[in-house]
Amino acid sequence: MESKTEIQTDLVIIGAGMTGMAAGVFAANRGLSAVVVGGAGAFEYASGLLDLWGLTHQGQGYCKDPWQCLSRISETFPQHPFLKIPESDIEKAFDELTDTLKKNGLTYTGMPRENSRIITSFGTAKPTYRFPLTMDSNAAALRGKKSLMLLDFQGLREFRAKFVQQVLASTWQDINIAAIDFPQRSSRSELFTPLMAQAMETEQVQDKFAAAIKPLLKGEQFLGLPAILGINGPDDILKRLEKLLGIKLFEIPTSPVSVPGIRLRETFRKALTDTSVTRLPDQRVIKAAHTPGRGFVLETGTQSGTGTARIQAKSCLLATGRFLSKGLVSDRKGVKEGVFNLPVSQPTNRKDWHALTYFDPNGHAINQAGLETDERFRPLGKGAEPAHERLYAAGSILAGQDWMRTRSGAGLSIATAFHAIGQVVLNQTNISE
Amino acid sequence: MKKILETQVLIIGGGVTGTGIARDLALRGISALVIEKGNINDGASGRNHGLLHSGARYVGSDPDSAAECAREAQILTKIAPHCIEDTGGLYVAVKGDDESYIADFPNLCKNAGVFCQNISVQEALELEPGLSREAIAAFKVKDASVDPFHLSLENMNQAIEHGAQYYSNCQAIGFVLEKKAIKKVKVRNNLTGDCFNITPRVTINAAGAWAGMVAELAGIRLDMIYSKGTLLVTHNRLTAHVINRLRPASDGDILVPGRTVSIFGTTSTRLDNLENIRPDFHETDFLVAQGAQMVPGLETARYIRAYAGVRPLVSSSKPKGDDRAVSRGFYLFDHERDQVDNLVTITGGKVTTYRLMAEKTADLAAEKLNVLTPCKTADTPLMSKAPSKLIEAGMSVKLWARDPIPGDSMMCECEMVPKSHFKELILWLKQNRETADLNSLRIHSRLGKGACQGTFCSLRVTGFMYDEAYIKESQGLDNIKYLLTERFKGQKPVLWDYQLAQAELNEAMFCSFFGLDMDGLDMEGEESGK
Lengths: 433, 530
Known about the structure:
Chain A folds into two domains: 4-104 and 262-432, FAD/NAD(P)-binding domain (3-Layer(bba) Sandwich); 121-253, Rossmann fold (3-Layer(aba) Sandwich). Chain A is 29% helix and 20% strand. Chain A has eleven helices and 17 strands. In chain A, the strands form five sheets. In chain A, strands 1, 2, 11, 12, 13, 14 and 17 form a seven-stranded mixed β-sheet that branches. A four-stranded parallel β-sheet of chain A has the order 8-7-9-10, with helices on both faces. Chain A has a two-stranded antiparallel sheet with strand order 3-6. In chain B, helix 1 (16-27) crosses helix 9 and helix 13 packs antiparallel against helix 14 (475-491). The longest helix of chain B is centred in the N-terminal third of the chain and has 17 residues, at 63-79.
C-alpha cells in the first residue's frame, strides 16, 4: 500500500549532502523546525576534509593563510558567494559545525587560522583547513618528515603504500612499508574500505590488527594507514591503537568509497536525531511548486514510488549541488536548475563550457555556472529580483565559484548554509511579528 | 656510438597499412622495420567507424571499390575472425530520402557484385526496433564490425614473430639521398629526443595523412587533401546490425556496433593542416541531429567520447605517370619516376582493403629487392601469440570467468579487466616494447575506454604498477596526468548530461582531492616560486 505523509514545516532543505546537512545542523542549533529531504550519495565521494580555501590566486600554489586569500577573492572571482558573507561569520560557521560534530563523536582539528597539508593516497599533499583528529599526525609527519612506516593491506586497490612512498621519495626518504592481511578478510572477496572500517570498530579486530603490526615496526615515529579506523568512534579507535602499538598513528584519505566521508554522513545523522529537524532520507523531490507571498508545496517519493510525502513549508533552501547530484541538469543546449527550473548563469555556448586542456590553470567555465543570488542568498528569477521571497540557495549550486580548483568545497557548503539559515531565521522572525 | 639499424625495408607509419605491410614482408622472409611517430593506429586507422564494408556504400560512386571491398571483407573474415563481429548490415531510407536512389540501389549492387536483399520496413523494424518509424525502405547487406586496433596489433605482433621490428614514438626527420636513392634515414625518438640512423634498401611511406610530409623529406611533392571526419561513441550498444542511411554517401549516415558500444559518424571537413585534429561542437550536434532521423535513440543517447580522423586523399587521382594505383580507393606511387628509386608511397584506402594495399605495396618492394616469394597474407591466419585479445571489449571478463586466478582482483569495473590481465600485458610490453606505461596499456587493452573514462582504473593500475616496481618516483602521477589529458580531448565535445556529471566527479577527485592540477607545488609547503 502506498502511504502519503503530510508534513508542515517552517523550512524545507532540499539536498542532504554537505550543504543540506550543515544547514540542518545550523537549523537544529537554532530550534528552527525544518525537514531535510534528499539522498546523501555524495558523502561517499567526499574526502572528509573541510577545506576553506587552499590555493593562492593565479599562482595556483599552496595557500598557507586562507583568510588572507579570502580577502583577495574578488580579484579572480568577482561574483563569489563568499563576498556576501562577513569573514567572522565564516569562522563562526566552521566553529559551530565542528563543535557539533565533536559532540557527536567526530573530532576535527587544525591550526588556529592556518591551512595544513594532508598526505593523500597519491602521495600528494592536499591543503585543507580542518581535518579529522585521525589525520592530525598525518599533517605533523608531513611537516617534520620524520621516520614513517606505511601500512599496506594485501589486495586493497584503493591504497598502495608504495605509490605514496615513491611519490614522496624525492623529499622524504625515511619511509618504510609493511604489509599485512586484514584480519577478518574472507578469502575471495575484494577488500572494501567501508567494510574494513566497520570491522575495525570491534576490539577483537583491533587487537588482532595490533598484534599483526607490532613485530613489523622498527622504531619509526609514525605509522600511516588508509582511512579505515571505524565509521563510528574513530577518535577512540585511534587512541586505543596508539596505546596498543606505542606509536603515533594516522589515517591517509583514499579515493572513493571514502570512509571519512561516510563518517561525516553518519555523524550528521546522529547530530540531527531528536532535534527540531526531521530527515527524510531516500525521499526525492518529484514535484515542487511555490506561490509568491505564500510558501512551498513539495511532493516527494522514493525511486520505487512507495512512501510518498507532501511537504508544506514557509521557506525553502536549495542545497542540491551540481551535476553529479542533479541540482543542475544539462543537455546539448544548456544547463537548467533541477527543482524549480530557476535561471542558471552559464556560458552562452557549449563550446565554452570547457577549456582546451584538462588541467588548464584557469579551470573550466562550466564549473562557475550556477545560481545567481541577491545578498541574502535568494536565487534570482527571470529579472533581477529574487524568484521567491523565501527561497534560498547554498553550496556548490551557486554561481561564480570553482570549489574544485580553489579547494573550497566544504567551506562553501558550511559558510553559505550558515548564512542562508541566518537569513531564514531573520525572515521567520519577521513573519511571526 | 650512434645507433645504426639495418633493414631491407623501412616502413614509415604504424597504422593498419604500415603494420599490414610489415606482416606481408615478414611472411615473405623480407626484413622489415616499422617506425611510428606516435603509437599504433594514432592516425586514421584508429579513428574511423571500424566498419568492414560490404561494398554497398560505394556501388553508386565507385563500383570497382565496391567489388574490392566485397572481396577483401571475405578474406579478412576468413583470416581474422577474432577481430571481426559478423553483425550484418541494413540500408535504411527514411521519409524524404531520394526515391530514385532507393529504386536504383539493388541494380547498382548487382552490377558491382555486392550482395543486397530487399526486406520490408516491417521486417527491418523487427530486426532493429530502434529504427525510425519514418523508415520507407530497407535492404540487408553483408556489413560487419571490425576492431582496427586489434587488426594492427595482430599485424605487428605477427610480423615481429617473423623477424620484423617496431619502434614507437620514432619519427623520420630526414633522408640522405645518394645516386637517386635513399641511403640513410634520420630518425628521432620523440620521447627521449635521441636521434639515430636507419639504412634501408627500400623505404615505404605509409604515413597516411602525413605521407606528403614524408615525401617532402625526399624533395617530392605530393598534394594531399586533408578531410576530417568526426565520430561519436555511445555508452551502450544501440543496434545489433550496422545501420547505413540509404542515400548517396553523405555525412552522418553510418551507425556501427562495436562489441559493447556503437559508433556513429561521420563528417567531412577540409583542413589546411594536421596540427589540431579535434572533433568540434558543430560536428557533434550535426551528427546527433542527422543520426536521430534514422535511429531516434541517437538524440537521447549517452555519448562517452568523440574523435576525429583525417582521410588521406591525394588531390590528383591520376598522379603523373603512375599507373600502379589498382583502384581509385588507394594510391601507390613508385618514386622511381621522381628520381628516388627506392622510395614507395602508399596512402588513401580504407580499413577494409588494407590487406590488399599492403600486398600491392609489398609486391613493389619485393620487386625492387629482387625477391620472388609471393604474398601469403590472404591465406595465413592473422593470429599472434601476444595478449592482443585484451583489446577486445568483453573478452577479459570471459577469460577471467573461464579461468579465474585466486587472489586476482578487478582493476577496471567498466570493462571488467582483472589485475592478472594487466600483469600479463605489462610483462609482454616490457619484453617486446620499450615502454610499459598507462598509455601503452590503454592502447593494448580496454583501460580508460569505459563509462568512467579512466577515473578509477587509472589509479588502481598505477598502484599495481608501483607494487610491481614497473614505475617509480612520481612517474605514476605523470602517467595519470597524461592519460587524463589525452582522454579529455575526446570527451570535451560530448560533455553534457551523464558524462558531464562523470567529468565533475573526475575533476573533484583528480584536481580537488589529489591535486594533479597543482604543477610545481613543492613539498616544503612554500608557494611555488616560478
